[in-house]
Amino acid sequence: MEKLASLKEHIDTGLFLRGLAVVGLxxxxxxxxxxLQSNKTxxxxxxxxxxxxxxxxxxxxxxxxxxTDAAEQQQQQDHTVTEKTPPLEKNALVSSPVKGLFERTxxxxxxxxxxxxxxxxxxxxxxxxxxxxxxxxxxxxxxxGLSNMASETAIKTLPSPVTFLLSPxxxxxxxxxxxxxxxxxxxxxxxxxxNEQYPQVDSGPRVILTTASLKQNExxxxxxxxxxxxxxxxxxxxxxxxxxxxAVLQPLMKFTFGRGLGFIELNPAASNxxxxxxxxxxxxxxxxxxxxxxxxxxxxxxxxxxxIAEQRGYAIGVLKPHSAxxxxxTKWLTTLEGKGIDLVPVSAIAxxxxxxxxxKMPTKTKPPADTHPTPAPAHNDxx
Length: 383
Fold this sequence. Notes:
Helices cover about 35% and strands about 10% of the residues. By secondary structure, the chain is an alpha/beta fold. The protein folds into 2 domains: about 1-50; about 70-350, Glycoside hydrolase/deacetylase (TIM Barrel, Alpha-Beta Barrel). It is elongated.
């Protein structure tokens, strides 16, 4: 007892209590920190799970797609959607394929003109645009559907008037087509044609060639057109390689325009051969003006687009979906309204001057039999 009394005399009671308080506070902080860290970990896992892309492999044979009826096709013009195709976004376009605008073949689903009313895939699948008297700029995002990350970013960050160019080598063509249209984005099918960069620049295993037979090129064209549905036309890059190959090019363009599709030329310096064929067929056509990622421009390519639009009334820019480019272009797009320039889908430019007359219906022929190689795998991280 005497030892205990002696020990109490040497202990400062106030100091002891303050020490206990400090220890208790440290303990509470540790508990809170552990709790916060666990929540952060759970949220991170949820975000990672939510961001995983479900890849739907597109088969070569015709499937049994959900079909949009004629009433829904007409409703596309005023942005209304029936209960059959509920939109995920307020600007969502109607689902595809639209009834009467496709033909089932052994190779897949081919677009066609409606034999009853003359409706074309271009008119049905384009993004509705009321018209404008102001200068117009159309922005095309290339390589859509190749990189999961880049494609997701483009959908989430770019406004709905931006047009997406779907790669035929996407291993989830139907999914990316649906995602784009539900976000209000018009899509075009990007088909590789031989040009001066071939074969140094890899265009993939399916390229329309000047040295191939007509049947081989028809097989390649049909393969590209059956990757999915819901596109307004095709895009490609041609140059002098095809200038002297009218016998190769003309049948392919006749087939394309006879199916009610438009055509976008990605080479600003291309000849007017395809433009002339489009005019003869009363088909939509336009040519790109500026490739935004091309480092050969003097000055800003975005300023060049603005200048062309203000001088000519319209301009078309092409963008590779690299992360840095997407950030800068997304910011630039917000400035167009204040400059008196309208951002439009490319169909608003390609469809200028079309004569309101019925298209000639192509003679139905059985497409050549073809085999479908496995599409190239999607790239998830290179952008």
